[in-house]
Design a protein that fits this description.
The complex is a heterodimer of chains A (112) and B (228). With 112 residues, chain A is α+β, with helices and mostly antiparallel strands. Chain A contains four helices and two strands, in the order αααββα. In chain A, strand 1 and strand 2 form a beta hairpin. The chains are: A alpha+beta (112), B mainly alpha (228).
């Protein structure tokens, strides 16, 4: 039985792909993840490793598009979320929300 | 030119998109090189992970080690009796397996060949003998017989269990990289850890065996406990 939970970095990559919609490929995903992860820096290699791992888990699907001149005639590999990936991301977002609500509640309790 | 040079190190299965991404991100040569040096090792490791079937790898390691052990048992029992003898027998196995893993990772998925298992195994033992010629690993007789038996075992194993990327793909089945877990990864890691501890332990002097083995076992136990 495969694990259906994702780590924090995986959450960032899934979120980046979700928000980029039809334009999710290596460079754009890396730049979106770097934005989300600020102030931490993110390497392109780490993004590739995570994309491969998420694809292995069945959360993502990928395909090669046509080559483009600004990339020296090389193709882009686009990614999209699969239904399982969306479900896992939703679950982790709900958990994060619950954590945030709890933190807010405790902080409020501490103030009063 | 530089792009082509870097491209050689990137596994063919992901060369196109990785080189394209690096080109798009970097205008200058220095930036391109710097980015490539930071990125390519991750790409290689990720590809190795995707193309390696850990259960088959463990079987290959076992067959390879048993071959050298049998050769040493018959032709040079004194080597096994030596303190570091069992560890020395693992060196050519380790080299062969690393080369095999890299050969699988660098195989071009668009070019299928029936000869791939033969070529990969031959390449692995060519590397073993190249290193042996530069710095002898074991007595030549054990190397020759052990390598021959290992090649035979590995060829049979690779014909029975081809590399993940070469296995037949069902239309509705999961893709090859979505590996079907026959054995839990933890069991494989534990098996490899026990084998490693026993091998290293056999090479440690008697008066240090207790502390060294204790530290190794504690280290592995802490790793597994903290991971779960």
């Amino acid at each position: 039985m495969k694990s259906e939970s994702v780590g924090q970095f995986e959450q960032l990559v899934l979120t980046a792909i979700l928000s980029l919609r039809d334009d999710a490929y290596g460079v754009s995903i890396h730049s979106k993840v770097a934005d989300l992860a600020k102030p931490k820096s993110v390497s392109l290699g780490a993004v590739y490793v995570t994309l491969d791992r998420l694809e292995d888990k069945g959360y993502l699907a990928s395909w090669l598009a046509d080559p483009t001149p600004e990339r020296g005639g090389r193709a882009k590999r686009f990614y999209r979320l699969e239904a399982l990936g969306e479900r896992v991301l939703r679950e982790s977002a709900v958990t994060a929300k619950r954590v945030w609500q709890e933190v807010g509640r405790v902080r409020g309790w501490l103030k009063s | 030119m530089i792009e082509k040079g870097i491209g050689i190190f990137i596994p063919p299965a992901c060369r196109e998109e990785v080189l394209g991404d690096l080109r798009e991100r970097n205008d200058g040569v220095q930036l391109f090189l710097y980015d490539a040096l930071r990125t390519v090792p991750f790409v290689i490791l990720s590809r190795v992970r995707r193309t390696t079937d850990s259960v088959v790898l463990l079987m290959e390691a076992f067959c390879c080690y048993v071959s050298y052990l049998a050769a040493a048992w018959v032709f040079s029992p004194s080597l096994i009796a030596k303190r570091e003898g069992l560890l020395l027998l693992a060196i050519p196995c380790g080299i062969a397996l690393v080369v095999l893993m890299l050969a699988d990772a660098y195989a071009n998925p668009r070019k299928k060949s029936q000869l791939r298992p033969v070529l990969a195994v031959s390449l692995a033992f060519a590397a073993v003998f190249a290193i042996h010629l530069a710095r002898p690993l074991l007595p030549m007789r054990i190397m020759a017989i052990g390598s021959g038996m290992s090649m035979l075992f590995l060829l049979v194993l690779r014909m029975l269990f081809p590399p993940l990327a070469d296995r037949p793909q069902q239309a509705q089945g999961p893709a090859f990289w979505q590996k079907q877990e026959i054995v839990a990864a933890g069991v494989l890691k534990a098996t490899a850890a026990i084998a490693g501890i026993l091998l290293i332990g056999s090479a440690v002097p008697d008066h240090l065996k207790g502390p060294v083995l204790g530290m190794l076992i504690a280290g592995v136990a802490i790793y597994f406990i903290t991971r779960t």
